[in-house]
Design goal:
The protein is mainly alpha-helical. Helices cover 58% and strands 3% of the residues. It has a two-stranded antiparallel sheet with strand order 1-2. Helix 14 (337-355) packs across helix 15. The protein starts with a helix and ends in a 17-residue tail after the last helix. The protein binds Sampatrilat-Asp (D0W) and zinc ion. Sampatrilat-Asp is lined by residues 243, 315-319, 342, 345-346, 349, 372-373, 377, 485.
Length: 588
Amino acid sequence: SVNDELLAKEFLGDFNTRAMDVYSKSAFKAWDYNTNITEYNREQMVNSNLETAVFSKDMSGYANAFDQTGFTTDTKRQLDSIRYIGSAALPDEELEELENILSGMESRYSTGKPCEAGTCYSLEPDLTRIMATSHDYSELYWAWNAWRAEVGAPAREDYTRYVELKNQAAIANDQPDAGAYWRSYYEVDNLQEITEKLYDELQPLYEQLHAYVRRKLFNRYGADYINLRGPIPAHILGNMWAQSWSNLYDICEPFPGKQAVDITPALVEQNYDALRMFELSDEFFESLGLIKMPQEFWDHSMIEKPDDGRDVVCHASAWDFSNQVDFRIKQCTDITMDDFITIHHEMGHIEYYLQYKDLPVVYRGGANPGFHEAVGDVLALSVSTPKHLKEVGLIDEVVDDQEADLNFLMSIALDKISFLPFGYLMDQYRWGIFNGTTPESKFNEDWWKLRLRYQGIIPPTTRTEEDFDPAAKYHIPADVPYIRYFISFVLQFQFHETLCEAAGQTQELYKCDIYNSTDAGTLLANMLKMGSSKPWPEALDAIIGSTEISAQSLINYFQPLIDYLKEQNEMNGDTVGWAEMYTPKDPE
Ligand SMILES: CC(=O)N[C@@H](CC(=O)O)C(=O)NC[C@H](CC1(C(=O)N[C@@H](Cc2ccc(O)cc2)C(=O)O)CCCC1)C(=O)O
Ligand SMILES: [Zn+2]
């Protein structure tokens, strides 16, 4: 093997040029498929991925040929990231089989449209709107079951083969199973301990919110469906996966009518369309001195669901085409507060891409995947404040008192605190499948065990192994890891705290809006520019001055609400937790 760093650097330079060309070709093919789901585009994408795999395999061979003794840390880091190539390490036949399974699962999910009495319902916007706005137990029950029947159960066979192939690929990358391969992105050997400790610190907040919301749902649906000492039926929480409860704000509002926090009506009233929502988001990024969306972004993004009958992957996403020029968002934007927040989330990915676009292609990624997920959400924490919404004319007045503050904190908690157990369990579930703890015979049973243990929810009707409910959640058939979101929900409050300090905001954290602060923007940008060139604790240190991820910032942010929830739960004589199992009545 070759112990020559000059030669290694020459290889890395050559790799970078060729990788940009190969990766951008396959990104455009994936874009064409995602924005127009046809058999032809699917095949084009699969073939392009197979060509990319040949390139990756070749390059991995070259990178492995170097004896790294005496090499600089940077050269070693770049070589190592070329050596590990994911599914490209599979033999050609298995790789082609996996690529076809993946695109098949993606198609099934993205084109799924359950029908009832001659009407067919897309997930976005049809079923999403029902889950968000209906208060009819049996209508919600229909939507929840219909979606799982359409895209869940039918995915079980594909998923079983997918697991085998993913594990085979992991072993070819010196990892024991696919879960270990996914965790290796974080470059720590104790990721499970780190996330478990964070979850233990945050669980008390969740169980307070769970008890409070359960009481409100009891008031709405009654004792036939809600047991005040038990878990909550999964379909009445305002979201197809019970992962975000912001659509329950109307029954959870601590002080009714005190302060408007849902701007959906205002967006509609003021004739906002998708483009104007995107421009408002971009304006916030620019106000911090961050890089604004380039012209190509505006020319080629897909920001609305096409109305020409095309099937598209509506699940929002941000795209880096690896050519330092093309960056896009694909989103079937609905004119709602939810989607306004999602726009900031996706634009946060684009900002990260823009900030690190001149790094070697191997370093064009988040410091860890959780960092990438946190960027947009940090800005959205400022945008969501009543102070900011008033500044941009989306609410009329800011009521500055304790009651209005609690209303606001409730609206954010219904998004952020409700998500924590779901963000935590999604990969607990898949790590368990990949390491063999969960056999195929228990795919559904183990899913619901985790949903009960962490989220305190139960299915509204009996589930069996004829079902495969996890596949009704995009990231499972789409082969996208999820612990990144749990980590992001913790990190984003640490980032928010630091950026608020930098912006000279001294009042309570939840009131902070970093709008127009170029000091905050510079601090953020300097971390984003690092990409994945250094281990993530160094990037964390660069922005918050500590290498430790900590739940304390999130707890600080929500403290007034946590006190309120405890007081309300005690006043209602409600026990926190869901120890008492029961079976909700079937809807008539
Ligand atoms: C080419 C490509 O794939 N690009 C990646 C980005 C990259 O890796 O560079 C990408 O765009 N991934 C799509 C994914 C979309 C969304 C998502 O799936 N969110 C989670 C969890 C969540 C929920 C609430 C929340 O506030 C934040 C997150 C869910 O909805 O369950 C949907 C709406 C929000 C984000 C995303 O943007 O992360
Ligand atoms: Zn994201």
